[in-house]
Structures are given as C-alpha cells and as structure tokens.
Amino acid sequence: MGNLLKVLTCTDLEQGPNFFLDFENAQPTESEKEIYNQVNVVLKDAEGILEDLQSYRGAGHEIREAIQ
After folding, report:
1. Domain residues of the chain, as ranges?
2. Considering the chain, what is the average pLDDT of its residues?
3. Hey, what long-range contacts does 11-19 have (CB within 8 A, 24 or more apart)?
4. Where are the alpha helices (DSSP H) in 1-68?
C-alpha cells in the first residue's frame, strides 16, 4: 500500500507511473482477514438493501386512496 501511495504522489516521473494492480483477483492477507470478513458481511447486506430500493415503485396510489 505504501508503494502505491508513493507512486501516486510522485511528481518526479516524466512518463508517469508504470505498474499493474490486479483488483479483481486481490486476496486479503492474514492480518487483513478479520476486517475483510466484517466488511464483506456489510456489503452483502447492502446488496439486498440496494435491490429493495431499486425495486421500490412508490406508494403514491395507495396514499391517495387512503386520503379519500
């Protein structure tokens, strides 16, 4: 992580940084595993919540009927 920050903040490079980061196949280290698992649980819950929000069609009709 330190090397990434070093490269991103370096202004001495004439052509810019030349490196590859594989985000798709990245795996947590042993020291990161506990936090990774906690975050993964939250993200899985968030996916369900996001799907529910995206499928919400509103209740305008029901509200108007209840008011009448």
Report:
1. 2-67
2. 85
3. none
4. 2-9, 33-55, 60-67
Give the SS3 label for residue 28. Answer: coil
Query: How far is the C-alpha of 1 from the C-alpha of 29, rounded, in Å?
Result: 12
3-class DSSP assignment, residue 43: helix
Q: How many CB atoms lie within 10 A of CB 28?
A: 13
DSSP letter assigned to residue 24: T
Q: The tokens of 32 are what?
A: 């990161």
Predicted model pTM: 0.47
